[in-house]
Amino acid sequence: MSKKALITGITGQDGSYLAEFLLNKNYSVFGIVRRSSSFNTGRIDHLIESYPLDKFDFYRGDVNDANSLIEIVKRIEPDEIYHLAAQSHVKVSFEIPVFTFDTVATGTLTLLEAVRSLGLRCKIYFAGSSEMFGSSPPPQNEDTPFKPRSPYAAGKVAAYQLCDIYREAYAIWIACGILFNHESPRRGETFVTRKITRAVARIQLGIQDRLYLGNLNARRDWGYAPDYVEAMWLMLQQHEPDHYVVATGETHSVREFAEAVFRYAGFDLVWEGEGLTEKGVDARTGKPLIEVHSSYFRPLETESLLGNAAKARKRLGWEPKTGFEELVKIMVDADMKRERMLLEGTKVFDEVWRTHI
Ligand code: NAP
Ligand code: G4F
Q1: pLDDT tens per residue across span 215-253
Q2: Which residues contact 18 (CB under 8 A, 6 or more apart)?
Q3: Which among 181, 221, 248, 256 is the best mutation to test ligand 2's pocket, defined by most ligand atoms within 8 Å of the CB?
Q4: Is the pTM of this model over 0.85?
Q5: Following DSSP, what letter does each residue of 59-99 receive, concatenated?
Q6: 84 CA distance to ligand 1 centroid (A)?
Q7: Backbone phi, psi, residue 5, to 5°
Q8: Which of 224, 251, 244 is nearest to 305 (CA)?
């Protein structure tokens, strides 16, 4: 009998890679998909088309709807639950804080309650975040205090603490991953890496004039999403549940990410001015390629993230396989291909995604 996995947030970046990873390990994979007025299964359509329903299927539900969660968990009786669902955009969490906190914190509690009330013995993965470290200075590891700087991060800290409480109070098996930023061609278009790689492709093709960004000095430890879903799985293969930081151990500023992207795409980018008037200019033509805009700054910022994943390396045998320059290359190549084909009128979304697993 193959193992059964349930993934909340299966339509997101990580959910789609994780589903592929588990299917390759012969799991039966089930996902929870929330109702949307437009199609929201683009990242998993190729799986829906390729697998029989007993190998891959999804159910309508919402992590804030207790009844739907109980019904789905009861019907599937999963061996492993990967809880990834969240309103995961930090800037947006300042704009819709109550909704974000409800999804991230209460949604996690609702899932834990579903498992507890059903008395289900399964392993649970909770998607914690390096954003929980907030203003704690780098490098950050499992012992670094949480000092959250956004409603999203506060929600993740609350959810993380609820996982600890349910583990101790009810002996529910829950592992918490504290994952640093991880990116891919499937990353949502409004996260900074994807915003930059998509923009460079569109600028090169003449579809977009320039790119507007916020804080260029924020630093992130950026890895490649498919490497990170393997760490989630490894956490659930351990005998005892634990907390693990997952990171590359390398940090770059947003400015450096943009420089690497524009360099790889063949531009010679130079910076002029400072603060809100800073511009990234094409050295050959003098044309501005990047400008700073106040609307992309956050009311509070997590300035600097750099993870120490020594525990994951030692206990899980996990290592990131994809370095910074390779990540840039993968993302720029995918957006170039996608934008070029969109321009030519060919629909290639999932083809691009499929070739970048
Ligand atoms: P993502 O692309 O934004 O995906 C989030 C998923 O959650 C989507 O499938 C979304 O559905 C779903 N969702 C949102 N609200 C829901 C609700 N109320 N009920 C059911 N599903 C809901 O995020 P990701 O990058 O894959 O990240 C996965 C998880 O890891 C998230 O919890 C995120 O906070 C966390 N995390 C991510 C990173 C990172 O760098 N990517 C780092 C640390 C932690 P729709 O598709 O319908 O919107
Ligand atoms: O790409 P971001 O929006 O990701 P952020 O805020 O680090 O959050 C992501 O990683 C977290 C893990 O640490 C996850 F938990 C979370 O769910 C999400 O996946 O922004 C990265 C940095 C920030 O400092 C932001 O201020 O880039 C800066 N930035 C500068 N200009 C921008 C922009 N961010 C966005 N989204 N858009 C900009 O124009």
Answers
A1: 999 999 999 999 999 999 999 999 999 999 999 999 999
A2: 7, 10, 82, 84, 229, 232, 233
A3: 181
A4: yes
A5: EE--TT-HHHHHHHHHHH--SEEEE--S---HHHHHHSHHH
A6: 6
A7: -115, 140
A8: 251
